[in-house]
């Protein structure tokens, strides 16, 4: 009868290997995961091979264009996430001072729904004594609030003009419509936009004017959900960041002849009053965008 190994004889799981495994499981791609963990695809492939040999189970199904977790891989995934979370908490106990208080963060609508939940979740684990007051508003208004000292940090959208803060993300703007819809073929082109001052709106109208294409502003909403509602009803098209186009939306085909709009930037602006709280949140925001 084989003796059950005790804890002293069991091998140790390496956190950097688990981080690579989680990245592959979440992205479904060795190359994308490699970029996230700053390794080469061959390096993380060797990591996974050694991990599977260590555990004695196949953890990933390798297909031509996708990798997916097996039943055993799914079981390990839960443990891996908890282990990395505990590691983060342990390091934070010694790396970060115990902070208490509140910090005021402004964000645009698209960032607030796509990226901010991850930032706030990680920040709360590391600084449980800090209250984050979030304001969701137009970029133009938030920049003014920064100048007036009403916000400590703000994530604002910026076009081609020189930003007043640190650029944390650049993304292509595309024309979006309802999959199977006809709005992109209508003339004048019906548009669903935010109000004046929106970078996406300015880029879209400038591109259409340069192309000499007739359009009409059919729907106006300061929120992405409102603009999307008009698209889903096949009543209009809209300028959206490429990453925001998800089913039932799709990128308008080139055959529709709509002009390119270029890219836009997300800029982190900071008020004049600094504090350890603001420094900490700023670091988390910048790191979150770096990991996109």
TrEMBL record:
Superkingdom, taxonomy of origin: Bacteria
Record-linked InterPro entries: LTTR, LysR_HTH_N, LysR_subst-bd, WH-like_DNA-bd_sf, WH_DNA-bd_sf
PROSITE patterns listed in its UniProt record: HTH_LYSR
Domain HTH lysR-type: 13-70
Record keywords, A-Z: DNA-binding, Transcription, Transcription regulation
One Pfam family here: LysR_substrate
MF-aspect GO terms: DNA binding; DNA-binding transcription factor activity
Family membership noted in the UniProt record: Belongs to the LysR transcriptional regulatory family.
Protein name, UniProt field: LysR family transcriptional regulator
Origin species: Halopseudomonas oceani
Lineage of the organism: Bacteria, Pseudomonadati, Pseudomonadota, Gammaproteobacteria, Pseudomonadales
């Amino acid at each position: 009868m084989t003796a059950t190994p005790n804890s002293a004889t069991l091998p140790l799981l390496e956190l950097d290997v688990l981080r690579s495994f989680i990245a592959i499981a979440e992205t479904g791609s060795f190359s994308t995961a490699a970029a996230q963990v700053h390794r080469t695809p061959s390096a993380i492939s060797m990591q996974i091979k050694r991990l599977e040999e260590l555990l004695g189970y196949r953890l990933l199904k390798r297909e031509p264009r996708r990798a997916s977790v097996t039943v055993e891989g799914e079981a390990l995934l839960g443990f891996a996430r908890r282990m990395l979370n505990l590691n983060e908490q342990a390091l934070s106990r010694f790396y970060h001072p115990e902070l208490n208080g509140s910090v005021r963060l402004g964000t645009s609508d698209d960032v607030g729904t796509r990226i901010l939940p991850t930032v706030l979740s990680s920040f709360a684990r590391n600084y449980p004594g800090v209250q984050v007051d979030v304001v969701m508003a137009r970029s133009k208004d938030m920049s003014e609030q920064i100048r007036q000292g009403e916000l400590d940090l703000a994530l604002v959208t910026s076009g081609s003009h020189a930003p007043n803060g640190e650029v944390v993300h650049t993304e292509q703007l595309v024309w979006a419509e309802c999959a199977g819809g006809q709005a992109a073929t209508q003339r004048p082109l019906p548009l669903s936009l935010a109000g004046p001052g929106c970078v996406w709106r300015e880029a879209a109208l400038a591109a259409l004017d340069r192309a000499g294409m007739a359009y009409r502003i059919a729907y106006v909403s300061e929120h992405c959900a409102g603009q999307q509602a008009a698209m889903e009803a096949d009543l209009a098209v809209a300028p959206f960041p490429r990453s925001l186009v998800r089913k039932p939306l799709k990128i308008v085909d080139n055959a529709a002849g709509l002009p390119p709009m270029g890219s836009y930037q997300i800029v982190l602006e900071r008020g004049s009053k600094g504090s350890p709280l603001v420094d900490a949140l700023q670091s988390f925001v910048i790191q979150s965008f770096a990991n996109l």
